[in-house]
Amino acid sequence: MFMHESKGLERNSIQLPTSNASRIGDLRQKEVINIVDGRRLGFVKDAEFSLESGRILSIVLPGPWSFFHLFGKETEMVIPWRDIRKIGEEIILVDIRENQV
User: Residues in the chain with pLDDT < 50?
Assistant: First the structure.
């Protein structure tokens, strides 16, 4: 089921920084910014990988704080790899339209 859902999420190319960020720890230090409206979305919390190809399918950000967070429910924002436009030394630029957020 997961493999079926992941089809179409992978992108073939993306501009990477010259220093080759190759660890999830490197991604966690980068702030994610939406180029559509300039909003700061937060820092990378995790990433989802395809076990078949070894490629990143999406990055995961902690969701906004809410009342439910007090009771242990945490929301997350999942950004598909296809929506990532550029990974720089300090930030990740994403293209997320209003209906996707």
Answer: 1-9, 16-21
What's the confidence (pLDDT) of residue 96?
Answer: 93
Apex CA 84: angle with CA 79 and CA 90, to 5°?
Answer: 105
Q: Angle at Cα 30 formed by Cα 2 and Cα 42, nearest 5°?
A: 75
Instruction: Enter the pTM of the model.
Output: 0.69
Domains along the sequence of the chain with CATH: 2-89 (2.30.30.240)
In what order do the strands lie in the sheet containing 46-49?
46-49, 56-62, 76-80
Beta strands in 1-101 (DSSP E): 31-34, 40-43, 46-49, 56-62, 76-80, 84-87, 91-94
> Which residue has tokens 């704080």?
65
Cα distance between residue 58 and residue 53, in whole Å? 13
